[in-house]
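[Meeting: bench + compute handoff]

Bench side (C.D.) handed over the final construct sequence. Compute side (W.E.) agreed to return the predicted structure before the next meeting so the bench team could plan truncations. Sequence as handed over:
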Amino acid sequence: AITSRSHPMRKILLSTLVCITVLIASGSAATKSIVEYFLAIPHQTFTEGSPDELLAIIKRGESGSFIDSKNGFMRLTGDGAQVSLQIALFRYDDKSPLLAVAWGELEQPDFTHLTFFHEKDGKMVVADRTILPVADSTKHRFELPRHGRTVTVRDAKSTVLSKWAWDGKHFQKE
């Protein structure tokens, strides 16, 4: 048994335990899912319902709605009375979240609006829109990535206007 406080093995064991505890604590924020971040955005963000209500609709999987937690992507396909959403989770270099939410007008399947949320003081808040300098417009359609880190901007006829790759700090035009 290791009983002496100065025993070298005791110091190694204590150091190992401290390192494991620090790694677990620092990794806990990075392991949050897209669902947890979506539920943390301000409840007044959508006029069609709170994030909790919209998530319940997504989980039912109706009309092509789904959650892809592994790739940090969710989609709500609206029914005319419900907004359509694309939600994608990006990460900053320091592993903090950047949640992108694209949506269109009711009864429109196009994603003409894009809002970003980042974590500040433990809450998800609206991020500066200049992070991707393409304005919301009826002329633009935002396509968030289910795979990869590139946002595609199309026109009303689906022609690609630009692509923007996330580099861990901001979006760079490709």
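W.E. noted at the follow-up: The chain has a mean pLDDT of 83. C.D. will use this when planning the next construct.
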